[in-house]
Each structure stands twice: as structure tokens, then as C-alpha cells.
Amino acid sequence: MGKFSDMIWLLLLLGLIGLWLKLSRARELAMAEARRQCERHGLQLLDETVGLRSLRLRRLDGRHVLERCYTFEVSIDGNDREPGRLWLVERRLTGLSLPTIETRIPEPNSATHDTSNVVPLRRLSHDRNSDHRLH
Known about the structure:
The chain is an alpha+beta fold. Helices cover 29% and strands 29% of the residues. It has a domain at 25-97. Strands 1, 2, 3, 4 and 5 form a five-stranded antiparallel sheet that branches. The chain is elongated, with a radius of gyration of 25 Å. This is DUF3301 domain-containing protein. It comes from Dyella koreensis.
């Protein structure tokens, strides 16, 4: 009976080691993808780390798969920290969330300032018979 329980404990230990190795490899893939996306979008990946945030079961291409969400931090100009997230299924990127960035705000110049894409806002006329409030 002792040899059987030892075998169960050994199999459990091997399973945990295998799971740890698989999650480590998945984290390395997420790190490489975060680096690639930061380079693509002109961001600096801070601390060179990603962390597993969540796991969820998702239906993709007609089958249920396990999707992993990783978080990381990026910087636009080196003086800030903004959150980023990416979602992976196996080795495939299924989602990406990076901060909305306005890298350069043009200075308005009266001689060259083009307002053709500006929509003027008008005050809403309040009719006493209708209620324009959101409920």
C-alpha cells in the first residue's frame, strides 16, 4: 500500500512541475509579444516583465479554449507608467489593450489652422413639454 501512495505523490509532483514549466513558457511567449507590440506602437516596456492576471474559458473558432490575460506597464516618454494588457490563446494573440496616446498635439496657427473637421456644438433648446434628461 505504501508504494502505491508514493507513486500517487510522485505523479502529483511531476504534474505540478509540468504545469509550472508550461506556465513559464507561456509567460515567456507573453513577454515576447508585449515587447513586439511595444516596439510596433512606439512604447517603452517597463521593468521587462509581464504578469498573469486572469484565466478564462472562451469559445474561439467553435471550440472552448483557455485564454490567458497578462498585464504589463508601458511608458510613452519615460516619465510615466501606463497599464497594458494582452490576451493569448496558446501562442495566438487574441486581444491587446494599450493606453490611448496622443504623441504630438499640433499648435493652432491662425494662418494654417484648418477647421474643416470641427463640428460646432449647439445648445439644446429646452422644450417645456419634453424631458431631455437621461434616466
